[in-house]
């Protein structure tokens, strides 16, 4: 998975820190533009009707409960396991997953982008990427799960049913990937972690 680091900006030059900060701001702008109400992608859906809702859960934590530290930058477990249901089988061509965070001061980070997951998939194992799926860049410019460090942030694990496969490759840039996910979404759901335990 992505490299584990104590801080997304640690050990970087001033120029690299500014570039990473600009990427985070751009990602947040995309998320804010695409979000509807509770922060799940909705605007830009190819349908005129309200989006279907997916149920998203994890065997390791409940919605609005703390994220276990094992899945943070102080742990060694990679991404937490996730499960989802309610995917519209006939219309869905792929699944995407976005892990993002926002803090008390409004700062935002995208920690993982996973797309072109087989539409028949209903769960994601701990520290894994489904066969055939691709990972896009995070706010830090890394590819893979970038473990969160900010203890007081809210972490959102959002799953999207898409009406197409994304014509993007491994390591795709964050903004175009998020825009493509938004424009292809037909159903969505989210599991939130209130902070890191």
TrEMBL record:
Keyword Repressor: no
Name used for this protein in its record: YbhB/YbcL family Raf kinase inhibitor-like protein
Taxonomic path: Bacteria, Bacillati, Actinomycetota, Actinomycetes, Streptosporangiales
Family indicated by similarity: Belongs to the UPF0098 family.
Pfam families: PBP
Alphabetically ordered keywords of this record: Membrane, Transmembrane, Transmembrane helix
Segments forming a coiled coil: none
Record-linked InterPro entries: PEBP (IPR008914), PEBP-like_sf (IPR036610), YbhB_YbcL/LppC-like (IPR005247)
Transmembrane segments: 21-43
């Amino acid at each position: 998975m992505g490299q584990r680091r104590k801080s997304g900006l640690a050990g970087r030059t001033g120029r690299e820190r500014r570039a990473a900060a600009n990427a985070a701001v751009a990602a947040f702008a995309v998320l804010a533009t695409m979000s509807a109400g509770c922060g799940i992608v909705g605007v830009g859906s190819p349908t005129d009707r309200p989006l279907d809702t997916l149920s998203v859960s994890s065997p390791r934590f409940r919605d609005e409960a703390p994220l276990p530290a094992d899945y943070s930058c102080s742990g060694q477990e990679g991404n937490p396991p996730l499960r989802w249901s309610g995917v519209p089988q006939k219309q869905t061509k792929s699944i995407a997953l976005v892990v993002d965070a926002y803090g008390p001061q409004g700062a935002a980070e995208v920690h993982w982008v996973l797309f072109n997951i087989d539409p028949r998939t209903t769960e994601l194992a701990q520290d894994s990427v489904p066969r055939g799926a691709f990972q896009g860049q995070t706010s830090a410019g890394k590819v893979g799960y970038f473990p969160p460090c900010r203890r007081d942030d809210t972490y959102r694990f959002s799953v999207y049913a898409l009406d197409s496969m994304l014509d993007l490759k491994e390591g795709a840039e964050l903004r175009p990937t998020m825009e493509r996910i938004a424009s292809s979404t037909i159903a969505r759901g989210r599991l939130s972690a209130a902070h890191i335990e």
